[in-house]
Write a structure and sequence with these properties.
53% of the residues lie in helices and 7% in strands. The protein is mainly alpha-helical and 201 residues long. The chain has a two-stranded antiparallel ribbon. It has a two-stranded parallel sheet with strand order 3-4. Bound molecules: heme C.
Length: 201
């Protein structure tokens, strides 16, 4: 039996039971073993925090991609003549698109919805467009507005840079080869309004 007396160094202690003559040691776990266990627990906590709470350490590649995005965004801001190719490139630039999203969520969302689902204004989330199906065309719609409707011209209030950022934000959700032009009556929010006002049979 494990007695109350202090064990001498390297003394072997056996547990009382014996199965088929096989006995078990009852030793204190060696320090190296315990420290490995404690170390593993500390490491697990650290690792858990780093990867699950903080999304992992930023690698050089991450930082570089972020910096390049910011540089591109600055270059785009300085571009004076716009074309579809540039607007598509802008729409794939994270920080440029983010600026556009800010403008959208502070002005346009009131009529077009926080998730572009439409409302007073047309739905901008799908690939169906009424007034233009190219980035430059859509730039024109936002710049000039649609006379006689709730869509005013934003040229004075936003200016070309902010408008190109908003276009980039809208285009970031579009596929360049899949933007379709549809007649006005087929626009989803118009269809919904017509359905709501159609005479009941
Ligand atoms: C006061 C409401 C209102 C606000 C604010 C508004 N719009 Fe509109 N927008 C409309 C309406 C209404 C239409 C549909 C015009 C029509 O009937 O042809 C429209 C149409 C559009 C279209 C054309 C969609 C298509 O299918 O061709 C685009 C693009 C657009 N808006 C973008 C914007 C952006 C970007 C902003 C913010 C800068 C904005 N709108 C702010 C009401 C609004």
């Amino acid at each position: 039996m494990k007695s109350l007396r202090k064990l001498a160094k390297n003394e072997i202690v056996l547990r009382e039971h014996s199965f088929d003559g096989i006995q078990e040691f009852d030793q204190r776990l060696p320090n190296w073993w315990l420290y490995t266990l404690y170390g593993a627990i500390v490491f697990a906590l650290f690792y858990w925090f780093l990867f699950l709470v903080d999304n992992g350490p930023k690698t050089d590649a991450h930082r570089l991609a972020g910096q390049l995005d910011v540089l591109d965004a600055k270059k785009f801001a300085a571009i004076s003549s716009l074309d579809d190719k540039t607007l598509w490139a802008m729409s794939r630039n994270h920080s440029f698109v983010e600026q556009g999203e800010k403008t959208y969520q502070s002005i346009c969302y009131t009529c077009h919805g926080v998730s572009l689902q439409g409302g007073i204004g047309f739905r901008l989330a799908d690939n169906l467009w009424v007034h233009a199906n190219t980035p430059l065309g859509i730039f024109g719609v936002i710049n000039q507005g649609v006379p006689g409707t709730g869509m005013q011209s934003w040229a004075n209030q936003l200016g070309p840079q902010k408008i190109s950022q908003v276009v980039a934000f809208l285009m970031s959700k579009q596929d360049p080869n899949d933007m379709k032009l549809i007649p006005r009556e087929q626009e989803p929010t118009i269809l919904a309004k017509n359905a709501a006002t159609a005479p009941q049979p």
